[in-house]
Design goal:
globular, single chain, Thiol Ester Dehydrase, Chain A
Length: about 150
């Protein structure tokens, strides 16, 4: 599936993580800074993978790295918004996985930002790409309830 054609409103997310907005996340005009929103998406990815494996991940031996990231900033986020980051892997390739995430305001039920990410299998010892392991595939298929 082409990630540019995803209909965010039709996606069922199995994972979400509450975001604590901090004072220093907000810029001079009262919006959460766009760069800060990337850290919210990163937190969502970390918590998603921890839920997948049902354990804290040791990222020193990272098996996946980000190779592409696209963000649409749909509406501004403000200090008192009730934001959650929703995360889903929707496609698994030979050496990559595609994720979609949204920053969602639970009070207004509106999408604030959309992030589409491609992550590649990676071996940090050899600095080379890897195939997505059967273990990761099985974890993702079971969590997301889809199969090839």
């Amino acid at each position: 599936m082409d990630h540019t054609l995803l209909d965010i409103n039709q996606i069922e997310f199995n994972h979400q993580q509450a975001i604590q907005i901090r004072f220093n996340d907000v810029d001079v005009i009262g919006h959460v800074n766009n760069a800060v929103q990337l850290s919210y998406f990163d937190l969502g990815k970390v918590k998603y993978f921890e839920a997948l494996k049902n354990q804290v991940i040791d990222w020193n031996g990272a098996e996946l790295v980000i190779v592409n990231l696209n963000v649409d900033f749909v509406q501004p986020i403000f200090m008192n918004d009730a934001i959650v980051v929703k995360t889903k892997i929707y496609e698994i390739g030979n050496k990559s996985v595609k994720l979609v995430q949204v920053l969602y305001d639970e009070n207004t039920e509106s999408v604030k930002s959309v992030c589409r990410t491609i992550m590649c299998g990676f071996d940090p010892k050899t600095n080379t790409s890897l195939q997505i392991s059967k273990e990761w595939r099985d974890l993702i298929y079971n969590y997301e309830k889809f199969h090839p």
